[in-house]
Design goal:
The chain has about 210 residues and is mainly α. Helices cover about 40% and strands about 10% of the residues. It is built from 9 helices and 6 strands; from the N terminus they run ααβαβββαααβααβα. The longest helix is centred in the middle third of the chain and has 16 residues. The C terminus is likely disordered.
Length: about 210
């Protein structure tokens, strides 16, 4: 991960056949996005903190410092303040990064947004797979709204990808949804939903 962010010089470690710029160098004058920041180990956190404070860093195996002027945007699915209290995240780095916090609620708390997100996914994936899908039935829309999405957006991506890869047609019907997903929805409702729903389209994607 240190090499990915700060780069490395030739011979810095096994497999380093040549020097390579890291993301910090490539982001010069722009934005560096660091996903799952709370997964970063403490040693690398200290190096990131120094970089944020000084704008300078040293590539892995390098003997000279380099400089980069960038904006840093981070994301995490954990509560960073709880990670600080648990000793897994540096408090000084937390306050350096937590300048403009933006909370993105999970799918289960976003109401009908799930339909718009699912529609965009369907449009994109149908185009990639050269499929005909244009919209989703009422039964599918109801199922998406009823599900709690413990796997959040990645779970939704998985459901839509499964539908697109294994089926085709202008409209996504309930019977096209993954079997396990259907069973989860049916169990939560206590009875099978109307698998037809073809008379109402909820998420047009073209």
């Amino acid at each position: 991960m240190e090499s990915e962010i700060f780069g490395h010089v030739k011979g810095a470690f096994t497999g380093a056949a040549g020097s390579r710029d890291g993301a910090a160098t490539r982001a010069e004058g722009g934005t560096l996005f660091l996903d799952e920041i709370c997964e970063m180990d403490l040693d690398l956190q200290s190096k990131l903190l120094r970089f944020i404070q000084t704008g300078r860093f040293q590539p892995v195996g390098g003997s000279h410092e380099e400089q980069a002027d960038i904006r840093i945007v981070c994301a995490t699915n954990r509560d960073p303040l709880q990670e600080v209290r648990a000793g897994r995240f540096r408090e000084d780095l937390y306050y350096r990064l937590n300048v403009i916090p933006i909370h993105l609620p999970p799918l289960r708390d976003r109401g009908h947004d799930v339909l718009a997100i699912a529609g965009e996914m369907l449009r994109k994936m149908a185009s990639e797979e050269d499929k005909q899908f244009r919209d989703m039935s009422q039964a599918v829309a109801d199922a998406l709204l009823a599900h709690l999405w413990p796997g959040n957006v990645r779970e939704l991506q998985n459901v839509i990808r499964n539908v697109v890869v294994l089926n085709d047609g202008e409209q996504v019907g309930f019977d096209m949804l993954p079997t396990q997903f259907q069973q989860t929805v049916e169990k939560s409702r206590g009875k099978p939903p109307d698998a037809d729903g073809s008379d109402v389209t909820m998420v047009p994607v073209r």
